Amino acid sequence: MKAFDLSLYLVLDPDLCARIGMVETARLAVAGGATMVQLRDKQAGTARMIETGRALKQALGGTGARLIVNDDVEAAIAISADGLHIGQEDMDARTARGLIGPDMILGLSVETEALAAAVDRDLVDYTGVGPVFATPTKADHKQPIGFDGLARLVQVSPVPSVAIGGLKAEHVADVFAAGAKGLAVVSAVCGTPDPAAATRRIAAEIRKVPA
Ligand code: TZP
Ligand code: MG
């Protein structure tokens, strides 16, 4: 089943999660209301991605939260992840879709209106749009787009979008007002003393968004 809920999308970071680890952070965040979890570890090779991915899959089993693997198509397939997320500098969407098959969720990062408009809805299931704000979490991020840029990119994206980049509970209303279906967060949850409570605060704001 390809149904997914982008509303509270946790992107893991091994450094920011170092205190309790990515798996425990994900477990707590999902308990707090995270709907999707992305394993993103730029330093790990495929073997470590598979190892962590398997542990995450076990930890999230039965919760309904979707597990997405960043970049590493081999790891995504090996652990039968719910999905794969790629950036513009990774393989192209057609190649990725060919490798993962029709049933896995495919997410694609888009940073400009032209890239968002060029997305093929037959290949890609959601777009990750940003960065909304500058963020130290991703050293090489592109030019921040703000909420105005977010609204423009969301509007031309032929598939649902999740916003990313410097987002916290206080931004939830603006994210949804711009038309995004959710927010992806790293530092707002990872690395906080209480990832479950941090996620619950964001989830509470999402519940206030008019349907
Ligand atoms: N892509 C664009 S910004 C970003 C990624 C992975 C990092 C977002 O991290 P944070 O801590 O939520 O600002
Ligand atoms: Mg990438």
UniProtKB/TrEMBL annotation:
It holds the Pfam family TMP-TENI. Keywords: Magnesium, Metal-binding, Plasmid, Thiamine biosynthesis, Transferase. Transmembrane segments: none annotated. Its EC number is 2.5.1.3. Binds 1 Mg(2+) ion per subunit. 4-amino-2-methyl-5-(diphosphooxymethyl)pyrimidine binds at Q38, L39, R40, D41, K42, N70, S109, K138. It is an enzyme of class 2 (transferase). Its cofactor is Mg(2+). Pathway: Cofactor biosynthesis; thiamine diphosphate biosynthesis; thiamine phosphate from 4-amino-2-methyl-5-diphosphomethylpyrimidine and 4-methyl-5-(2-phosphoethyl)-thiazole: step 1/1. GO terms for biological process: thiamine biosynthetic process; thiamine diphosphate biosynthetic process. One of its GO terms (cellular component) is cytoplasm. 2-[(2R,5Z)-2-carboxy-4-methylthiazol-5(2H)-ylidene]ethyl phosphate binds at T135, P136, T137, G166, V186, S187. Mg(2+) binds at D71, D90. It catalyses: 2-[(2R,5Z)-2-carboxy-4-methylthiazol-5(2H)-ylidene]ethyl phosphate + 4-amino-2-methyl-5-(diphosphooxymethyl)pyrimidine + 2 H(+) = thiamine phosphate + CO2 + diphosphate; 2-(2-carboxy-4-methylthiazol-5-yl)ethyl phosphate + 4-amino-2-methyl-5-(diphosphooxymethyl)pyrimidine + 2 H(+) = thiamine phosphate + CO2 + diphosphate; 4-methyl-5-(2-phosphooxyethyl)-thiazole + 4-amino-2-methyl-5-(diphosphooxymethyl)pyrimidine + H(+) = thiamine phosphate + diphosphate. Residues 8-189 form the Thiamine phosphate synthase/TenI domain. GO terms for molecular function: magnesium ion binding; thiamine-phosphate diphosphorylase activity. Condenses 4-methyl-5-(beta-hydroxyethyl)thiazole monophosphate (THZ-P) and 2-methyl-4-amino-5-hydroxymethyl pyrimidine pyrophosphate (HMP-PP) to form thiamine monophosphate (TMP). HAMAP family: TMP_synthase (MF_00097). Belongs to the thiamine-phosphate synthase family. This is Thiamine-phosphate synthase. It comes from Rhizobium phaseoli.
